[in-house]
Amino acid sequence: MSDEARRAAGADGSGASERPRREVRARRTAFGRRAAVRARELAASGATESQRDLTGLTGTHAYTRTRAAAGAADDVRLTARLRMRRAARTVRSYAERAGRWISATVTGLGLSISVVVVIAALLGYLLGWIELVVVAFTGFALLVLGVFFLLGRNSYDIGLSIDRDRVVVGEAARASLTVRNPSRFRLPPVKSEVPVGRGLAEFYLGGIARGGRTSRDFAVPTSRRGVVRIGPVRTVRADPVGLLRREYVWTSHLDLFVHPVTVPIPATSTGLIRDLEGNPTRDLTDSDVSFHALREYAPGDDRRHIHWKSTARTGQLMVRQFEETRRSHLVIALSLASADYHSEEEFELAVSVAGSIGIRAIRDARDVSVLASDETPEFARRAVKTPRRLSSLSRSRLLDDLARVEHSPLASGLVTLARGSAESVSGASVAIIVCGSEPTAAHLRSASAAFPPGVEVLAVVCNPGIVPSLRRVGELRVLTIGYLDDVQKALARAAS
User: Fold this and answer.
1) CA separation for the pair 272, 468 (Å, rounded)
2) Number of CB atoms found within 10 A of residue 98's CB
């Protein structure tokens, strides 16, 4: 068809059928392919003009309005849920605070009075008993009046000190509590409490004037070995009846080490260790103390070790060869198993013996390792074989660690302790096993066999009150002592 024919067809209306296609194309251009598809679907479904006007050409506006309304409803519900959760969280927080305050403030007597008040009020009003109503109001009045004794907070400057931080069992130790008033007003009387170990020291301090101070001294019990925890200091405010009580903690705690009793062991009693020259081994070296043999000179040998007489006799350079000496290493194994001790006195004697021998070795500048049984947790499938190592760097550190040890039914036995000591300490020359009177000779022999050949083993059996003795169980020497003072003579006897 030519251009003139097309113009003619447009003039007489024959090209009207192509106009909708142009309109559709215009719509596709304006709204896109999806809009055109939606319009055709609405036309095919027979939607009315009002519906078309409502939904627009493609229905997108109605969909947007519906989704916007649904989104607004969801936002409202979500906001309501968030507010409810926040409210519940706030209520729970206040309830927990109230519970903590009640548990920390209301005493057992106060809780009992509270229960009596509630029960008496209910029964009094339900049954018409005036006496129960009076009891309820009286108890409630006591609780309300007790609250006024807890209001406010006084300002104190409290200090806690001890005259020494390490003592031996039985030595006197004193602590001092100092309270000062830093405020501009006179402070009312107050009750102060200082926990001392498992006990409690109470002091009733009178009113303190402005800038004044007061102090209280008290003794710290040191009758038993251990670590005594002193403090923290707290002041107590309570009502006269004892229904409510409020505590304020002011200072941190102090630790007092109560060391075990030890005895000085003379250096001659440690001849058992044989460390005058060192123990020779089969390892050969070019420089040491113990002479072994002569050999021909090799490049790199020290010329100071040339043996000139042998060189002149043989005509070749000959040098000395030595056996390598090993500095003796003392191992002290202390059993902490409750099954190895008959009484508490036996265990304390064993701790004192281990401490006495360890201190002597430290003073002599010897290599010493002090080991103790370690506990096996109840849920563990296997027993703990590695022993606990105590500090042997200085006398005070060793005694500090010995002050902490306690026997336990979960601690490893004597044989396990010996095996762990042999594995964890290399190069040991002397091993001293300290235990109670319960292990049999077979157990002692098994413990001694756990150490490698060449290690001299001595078992010290602590049995309070028994006459000291020395016996042999195979190659093991067993030293039995009944008093701590017997250690000096008994070790000298064992060394001979």
Assistant:
1) 18
2) 10
What is the length of the chain? 496
Q: Is residue 69 part of a domain?
A: no
Contact 244, 107 (CB under 8 A): yes
**Which residues lie across from 235 on neighbouring strands?**
192, 248
287 plus 403 within the same structural domain: no
In a domain, 250, yes or no: yes
Q: Measure Cα distances from 457 to 60, 352, 370 in Å.
A: 96, 19, 14
Say yes or no: 281 and 198 in one domain.
no
**Count H helices, E strands: the chain?**
13, 20
Strands (E), 181-233: 190-196, 199-205, 213-219, 226-230
**Which strands, in side-by-side order, build the sheet including 456-462?**
388-390, 367-372, 329-334, 430-435, 456-462, 476-481, 469-473
Task: Give the 3-state secondary structure of residue 181.
Answer: coil
Residue 383: phi and psi, rounded to 5, are -75, 145
pTM over 0.70, yes/no: no
Residues 471 and 437: their CA atoms lie apart, in Å, by 14
Q: Is residue 94 part of a domain?
A: no
Which residue range(s) make up the domain with 302?
277-326
Q: Which residue has the tokens 């005594």?
A: 228
Q: How many domains would you assign to the chain?
A: 3
Cis peptide before 280 (omega within 30 of 0): no
Examine residue 177 and state whether it is found in any structural domain, yes or no.
yes
pLDDT class of 60 with cuts at 50, 70, 90: very low
pLDDT band (50, 70, 90) for residue 438: very high
